[in-house]
Structure prediction request, 168 residues.
Amino acid sequence: MMRSMTLDTPAGPFTYLVSEAGAVRASGFTSEIDALLPLVHRNLLEETRPATQPDAIEEAVRSYFDGELDAIDNVAVEQHTTGPFLTHAWLVMRDIKPGHPVTYREYAALAGRPTAIRAAATACARNAVALFLPCHRVVGTDGTLRGYRWGVGVKTALLTHEQVTVAR
Prediction:
């Protein structure tokens, strides 16, 4: 059985679905669990119930928004992949440092396939665990903010939060 938790954050409501083992299977800037359930692969989908007590994930998210940007780095995640590139690209995504966004081209190179810019964009688009795998730190090749499942306004808020915190 998965548990759900919704938190109020400066970027808006943030909800995550977590397995009994403690791995986040889906997360995003919404208060609607129904917006997250389609992101969970059918092999990982379980009945979902609201969490009754705070957990370490909630503490990590709150710490991140309080300025401890690395608090989310070790939160366990679990999502289904369709191949080795996505698995690797998602691991690499965790290494993108707060306050230092990279372009899709740079992300593709970091993932070991410098010409696979579209594959890098696909890794961002298929990321079901927003914030914990920081796809918001990947920007357009010209430096502009491209689409984000939870809205460019949320992406802007997250990047601004990280840049201001790192600059302190």
Remarks:
- The mean pLDDT is 93.
- Strands lie at 2-9, 12-18, 24-28, 48-50, 102-103, 138-139.
- The chain has two domains: 2-72, 84-167.
- Residues 84-167 form a domain with the Arc Repressor Mutant, subunit A fold (CATH 1.10.10.10).
